Amino acid sequence: MIRTLLARAGLVAAAACVVTLSTAAPAAAHGADAPDGTDYRTRTTGVAPARPGLAVRVVEAGARLELSNSTGRTIEVIGYSGEPYLRVGPDGVFENSRSPATYLNRTIAGDTALPAEADPAAPPSWRRVADGPTVRWHDQRALWQESAPPAEVRAAPNREHRVRDWAVPLRDGADPVLINGTLDWVPPPDAYTWWAVTIVGLLAVGALGLLAAAAPAGARALSALGALLVAGGVVAVAYPVGRELDAGAQGLGGVAIGLLSGQIWSLLTGVGAIAAGWYALARRPAADFAVALAGACLALFAGAANAAVFARSIAPVPWSPEIARVMVAMVLVTGTGATAAGVLRLHAASRVAARSPRVEDAERGATAAG
Hints:
370 residues; alpha+beta; 7-stranded antiparallel β-sheet; 10 helices; 10 strands; 48% helix; elongated
């Protein structure tokens, strides 16, 4: 029985690895193609001249700009050649199918091929893309698109640098308006330190599996593993919720839709870890198997999938990058440590189960000889 559970755990873990790798691209494409982390900090410094009811902010770790228009008037976003690109007003959001920006801004890299109809000199052809007064878009003017950092960054990568000031032109009726902002290089953290702390933590959690399950210390270890899985599961759910908020999701419904469409694996593994943790706290049968399996999924789908923040200075969440790194480290420590501890406990139980028949045979043989 124990060997069967171990085999199943191995198969599920292997399947989880395959699914993680096969879904890596869609997961990274959350919110079009929001980064898992970056070293470039994009900020808006205001709208000039100010327009009451017009709000602009940066979302998705700087990958996109968000404009909300409650002025009651139509506001146009101007494209790269001075052509109308987006129109936001009381009747919804429209994009100009003849603006090259409509296609270039489909991806953060700006590498979409332009169709024949893309002509900035042609009269606008508007098509509705949303009903509300809010639009989000990639804007190359607010991003660093080169593969190599700027020269001043290469010369002193450990210092913060102002890469450039940027501006995105708008039009309010006949009046020109500007979104102003800044783009800065922020030195990345030392990823090795975060990985070292994580490895030490997961080894400490995994060592709980060395305590004999039948002893009081082993029972307490199982309870500790259950509590850790519950905590890790809560963090694993909170992190993608933060990503959705950073991506501009509005309200409970907007967050839920974003989670189900782009963060489903992290959400499900977080919920599964919470359930497995309660199962272990209740010391139910096969709790060790549940701990090992939930831990493996947690580490893969919610930990490794977000580990880029260890090496990036800007995280795609609405709190500090330090908190984001602590959360990811906690998920990795809990998930990997619980997997190791669960497998060790299952292996010990397997050895006990295999030894018991031999002990019984020896006892029967001794009785018969006596």
